[in-house]
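lol forgot to send this yesterday, sorry. struct tokens for the thing we talked abt
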């Protein structure tokens, strides 16, 4: 794999070194190699490494998931409430009362829920992962781990990816739940709709593609955010470069999230 990556980088350097495409494809090649190295470490998570692996996974879930609940709750409540209020006041004027469940499903389940949750996780946890790994690298902690015969990918990166995947998945489900139920009770102060009718409209509108789309987004966001931020966390060579690469990790992850969100939505609903 390393030889293949070197050949790819050499090819791009020989033919595209004076263009934007050289840096883009070279960085993409390195990222793919990094990802393969991380996931190949799954086979080494056993024996004495398993306890350390589970501790990091648990810590990542606690920071990424549990400590993000207040912010996710507040944002989902506001978004759910305002979406329900606007749909209940606007759609009846068009004679589309039966479309309320479909509108809420499209706005919250398909798009807003996964996207906003991913952005919250990126801002809170993604930047923390990048800065933490950068600091550990410059303090030679990673080098010390390697001298002890321990793969740093197995000990520090892979458990963060697993913890991020679990946290993002649970937070997206939690976001949708609070947006619908909390948003209903918030909107009930402004508009009146029977609770049974509201729940029935939501359940009737949600289809299998909606569920599959959300599951795919959970997996893709949960893996891509910690993986991308870990990749750029290993980049700095000096203390001065830490904020540069932390910023780059957040920006690149944000771009990837929007691209992947659009691609998945088109894939499921065209």
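and heres what i got for the seq, position by position
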């Amino acid at each position: 794999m390393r030889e293949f990556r070197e050949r790819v980088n050499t090819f791009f350097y020989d033919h595209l070194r004076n263009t934007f495409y050289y840096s883009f494809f070279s960085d993409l090649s390195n990222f793919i190699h990094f990802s393969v190295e991380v996931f190949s470490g799954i086979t080494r998570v056993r024996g004495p490494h398993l306890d350390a692996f589970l501790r990091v996974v648990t810590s990542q879930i606690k920071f990424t998931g549990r400590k993000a609940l207040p912010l996710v709750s507040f944002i989902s409540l506001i978004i759910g409430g305002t979406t329900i209020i606007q749909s209940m006041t606007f759609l009846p004027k068009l004679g589309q009362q039966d479309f309320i469940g479909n509108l809420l499903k499209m706005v919250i389940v398909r798009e807003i829920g996964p996207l906003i949750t991913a952005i919250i996780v990126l801002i809170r946890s993604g930047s923390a992962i990048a800065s933490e790994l950068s600091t550990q690298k410059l303090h030679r902690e990673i080098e010390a781990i390697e001298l002890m015969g321990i793969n740093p990918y197995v000990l520090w990166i892979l458990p963060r990816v697993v913890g991020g995947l679990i946290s993002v998945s649970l937070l997206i489900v939690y976001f949708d739940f609070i947006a619908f139920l909390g948003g209903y009770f918030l909107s009930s102060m402004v508009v009146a709709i029977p609770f049974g009718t509201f729940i029935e409209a939501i359940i009737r509108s949600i289809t299998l593609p909606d569920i599959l789309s959300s599951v795919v987004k959970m997996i893709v966001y949960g893996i891509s955010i910690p993986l991308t931020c870990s990749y750029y966390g290993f980049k700095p060579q000096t203390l001065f470069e830490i904020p540069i690469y932390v910023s780059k990790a957040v920006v690149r992850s944000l771009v990837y999230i929007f691209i992947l969100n659009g691609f998945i939505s088109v894939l499921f609903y065209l």
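The CA atoms of residues 135 and 242 lie 8 Å apart. anyway ping me if u want another try
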